[in-house]
Amino acid sequence: MPPPTTIIHVLRHAQHDDSTGLLTNEGEEQAFRLASVFINERFLMAQHITHIFCSPVPRCQQTAKIALRDVIARGIPIVTVQELSDNREVGLSFLWRHISLRERNEIIMITQGVVLKTLLGLHNVVYQPEEFPNVLIRSYLLIQELHYVPRPRLRRERGRVDQPPDYSTVHYRMAVKCAKVLVKYVPIVWFGISVIGLTIYFTIPSSQRSH
């Protein structure tokens, strides 16, 4: 059985009027045309969508309600996500509040083009609206990344050690190595110094030795 996957579809809103922020007549037509695609039984994506995340911006909400009406009719609600309205804060962290990677997820996000640019990691690219045409769907497979999680630091409370130290650290290994070197070579060095000292002592005439 294949492992659960998370597929993310990103969608820019339909055409809107800059003065009102709402969809134009052409924008509504674009959304309705997309809705007819979702109704088509051969369009498998519509049948498998499990979550709808949408920016609170009115033109995005309008696009979602028109274009995804068939998906909504199946009982999939529109979840308004504030993070999808601001390209400075956008990220995928909000997903973990709504989905589990142990399950199969197929998500569609509706937001503005400038937010999509940041969401897709194009931080150093100057935003060009034509790069994100209205109601164009782009699909991505979410791959989990393994992050290094540091072990808890050694904490002492009332003389009691709550967490044992991490003996695998580099500093500990270096300390052990230095201790082994000292144990091995310090007696030899001390013996050599003692021999040299005694040799010098007995080469000095007894009359010149200090008592």
From TrEMBL:
SUPFAM superfamilies assigned to the protein according to its UniProt record, in alphabetical order: Phosphoglycerate mutase-like
Record bears the keyword Transport: no
Identification of the protein by name: Phosphoglycerate mutase family protein
UniProt KW Transmembrane keyword: yes
Entry's transmembrane regions: 182-204
Pfam families with a match to the protein in the record: His_Phos_1 (PF00300)
UniProt-listed CDD domains: HP_PGM_like (cd07067)
Record key words, sorted: Membrane, Transmembrane, Transmembrane helix
